[in-house]
Design goal:
- Keywords: Membrane, Transmembrane, Transmembrane helix.
- It comes from Mycobacterium adipatum.
- This is Transmembrane protein.
- This protein is an alpha+beta fold.
- It has one domain (about 1-75).
- About 70% of the residues lie in helices and about 15% in strands.
- A two-stranded antiparallel ribbon has the order 1-2.
- Helix 1 runs antiparallel to helix 2.
- The protein starts with a helix and ends with a helix.
- The mean pLDDT is about 95.
């Protein structure tokens, strides 16, 4: 039982790290042209949708694995 709990908690940590990496890779800064003449250009962040979805799926998986791992650890004590 302890090995399963440990695997679940390690997998949750890896999924969380993957979600953070995916989220950080999803954004890219872009320059937006001004709306009117004489106005400064603006900078914004454009997100890549597949990487955002991957981050959300990995975050959900990390949450589920963390709950299962912690519940199994508490049951085995």
């Amino acid at each position: 039982m302890r090995r399963t709990v440990l695997v679940q908690l390690v997998a949750a940590g890896l999924a969380l790290a993957g979600a953070v990496a995916s989220w950080l890779a999803a954004g890219s800064p872009e320059q937006v042209p001004p709306i009117m003449d004489g106005q400064p250009s603006l900078s914004t962040v454009v997100y890549d949708p597949p990487l955002v979805v991957l981050a959300l799926v990995l975050l959900a998986a990390a949450g589920v694995l963390a709950v299962l791992g912690i519940a199994g650890w508490r049951r085995s004590r």
